[in-house]
Amino acid sequence: MKTVIARAEGAALTWAKEYILNGEVVAFHTETVYGLGADARSDNAVKRIFQLKGRPADNPLIVHVHKDYDIASLVDYVPPYAEALKREYLPGPLTMVFPSKGKVSALVSCGLQTLAVRVPSSVTAQAFLKEADIPIAAPSANLSKHVSPVTARHVYDDFAGKIPLILDGGECSGGIESTVLDCTGEVPQILRAGLVTQEMIARVAGDCGVYRMKSGEKPKSPGMAYQHYSPRCATAYYPQEELAAAVERYQREEQAGNRPCFLCESELACGALSAFCTLDLGHTGKEMARRLYALLRRGEEISGILIAIEPKEKGGVMEGVLNRLTRACRGNGNEA
User: Fold this and answer.
1) C-alpha–C-alpha distance, residues 209 and 316, integer Å
2) Do residues 319 and 221 lie in contact, with contact meaning Cβ atoms separated by under 8 Å?
3) Among 30, 164, 306, 310, whose CB has the most other CB atoms within 10 angstroms?
């Protein structure tokens, strides 16, 4: 199979719809990361997503729809606070989980009685979703456990020859996956941190909790249970207070010929670590979110071991950044 990269216009949108309605999988740009989309109503199409990614069968998917789609046709009840959140933040990087009406394949939610729904703001995503005009199941367009893609080339690197089409919208501006919010209770609960923060949700909804997954519990949303976002090189992770130990580690790795590289915020990249090979995450939470995945992929290209230094900034968008950074650089058998 030949994989074509094309802008979401004209013939490419026609091809995309034809592929989707014939059970194929199409990758498409969103404002967060690229998605790997298929007809959410079809068991076979949804199975194809899991097969292509090598995704665990109990890790739910998110359904994507265009801004004019009737979400009420897919879900049973949207509480008033969720209606307020929709008005404030959609289209945008917020996924909301509701009781499902069972209108899509049960494989999407992995047997749960809920459905995660998202309305992306990306012009490319909106054009594709409007053209298809059906619910599209779509996880991030990367092989399972690999770093999520923020360019069409990243998608191509993982799926060349395996999918027919990648709808190119340029580099993703958000950089980390959407916030996933459980809207099935009286108070919304964050299942996965992202660009729409707990404070932003609470300001509109009146309150917002953070769900803590229990041992042995089935995941309620993507990004809860598994190691994710890992570059194809060894990694290590150090808190700021262990910077001296991180430098020692770098020097040991360099002497052993392992091509180390630091991944750190601008203050360190331009300061204490400026004499070393460094990848600069940026100054602010939004900047670090936007750069993170591209730099993790760059790190696997240029280094034998990527040594991440925990940023000083905490809270807000950084909850999502730190969630991804620690999952990427810890737990793979190569951590500090």
Assistant:
1) 14
2) no
3) 30
Q: Give pLDDT tens digits for 7-62.
A: 999 999 999 999 999 999 999 999 999 999 999 999 999 999 999 999 988 899 99
Q: What is the mean pLDDT of the chain?
A: 94
DSSP at 304: S
61: which DSSP letter? -
Is residue 105 a contact partner of residue 125, using CB atoms and an 8 Å limit? no
- Element housing 309 (H / E): strand 305-309
Cα distances from 24 to residues 36, 126, 159, 219, in angstroms, run: 10, 19, 13, 26
Q: Please tell me whether residue 192 adopts helix, strand or coil conformation.
A: strand
User: Is residue 72 within 8 Å of residue 234, measured between CB atoms?
Assistant: no
Q: Which residue reads 């097969």 in tokens?
A: 51
The one-letter code for the residue type at 223 is G
Q: Please give the model's pTM, rounded to 2 decimal places.
A: 0.94
* Cβ neighbours of residue 137 closer than 8 Å, sequence gap 6 or more: 37, 38, 39, 40, 45, 46, 49, 61, 62, 63, 64, 104, 105, 108
Helices 285-302, 152-159: axis angle to 10 degrees equals 40
Tally Cβ neighbours within 10 Å of residue 158.
Answer: 21
Asked whether 37 and 136 are in contact (CB, 8 A), the reply is yes
Are 281 and 288 within 8 A, CB to CB? yes
Q: What is the distance between the alpha carbons of residues 116 and 258, in angstroms, rounded to a whole number? A: 42
| The amino acid at 243 | L
Taking only the tens place, the pLDDT of each residue in 77-126 is 999 999 999 999 999 999 999 999 999 999 999 989 999 999 999 999 99
